[in-house]
């Protein structure tokens, strides 16, 4: 698999296309061939669009031939989570019915940026209905298959459940996702890919079907931190040179980088092999020059407590449905329906108390983060569950609470974070290292993660080939 042209670093693929050693059409045809080979088995896409992809690839090649650069994503195959509005593509947001074309089939800002650069949309990827959950379960459309388990239907995480699978399949080299309590980082960790959750407000949410107007953030998944940095620089509203950002992480000398590791809440009760694998990765970074600092962060557990109390997402989703799609309530996936329906019992006083509590916790956490550059932790504390273990509302709720334990607090405290694959647990499933940084510190976070990847290696180095893709 690594020898496939689709699996080279994006900066190299793009350079070869610009210098006419490769073409966008060839790249897209290779992506289509990968989907034809593995797509039925993996079930990553809710809407597959090869003809549209070929047309955009030809336009990208025509621009290359004319010496016209439309942007860093020119000609690159990208998958888009099925809650991003895009002209010419249906939007279901994981639900049983197609959402109204106005506004949900009209390009939002991020999709417009992708299309202005002649990036190639390969299709829409599966997701949990209205992004409400991290298990990947979807009764309407079915759940993708985790290619790291060749014998059982195991979760790929959610809510951006098809995103990481599309990358492993090879039908996309970047994947658009969204993250409200971990919905980029969870599937990235479970599929052995890299995922970035940006600071709230850094990227626009216009044109993204809302779960929580308070915490929704668009995000990216990629096969490596290097590719993630490339995609971030290409999409960020701030002018960032992708090659310049990547070059910042070229050194493997982590001298001076302060890694906070002392919050026990983030490390306890992990499934066998998870905490050990992440700790080994941190120890390797320390041997490369980083310093490990005790960094107590009690606000993380307190923020998770607000999530356990019900958080804000259920009532904010309910508000959106009541206002825009009231007839959808009776058709919700049974695993999420009880929480959404019960949200109507939340009083305004309790809602505002939760908002105030989280604001207070974010303010209290801020000075603690000044003592370190990043906080390291396992991205998830559990191995991907079997889909049979999350098939009903009660089991879904129980497992979902554990899935988001190490991710939701990042959203609730207004921070940014990245997950990167660093090994496998004792069950042979991928393990992610989460690095968390203060708000609007994405460039620094990515630089540190790039240096860490230079020391630790990529997923291809540390994980090998997923068993379902080995044949």
Integer-rounded radius of gyration? 21 Å
CATH topology: Amidase signature (AS) enzymes
- Fourth-level CATH superfamily: Amidase signature (AS) domain
Helix and strand succession? HHEHEHHEHEHEEHHEHEHHHHEHHEEHH
Q: What's the end-to-end separation, in Å?
A: 11 Å
The number of helical elements comes to: 18
Please explain how this structure is put together.
The protein is of the alpha/beta class and 471 residues long. The protein has one domain (5-469): Alpha-Beta Complex (Amidase signature (AS) enzymes). The protein is 40% helix and 13% strand. The chain has an eleven-stranded mixed beta sheet, with helices on both faces. The longest helix is centred in the last third of the chain and has 22 residues, at 348-369.
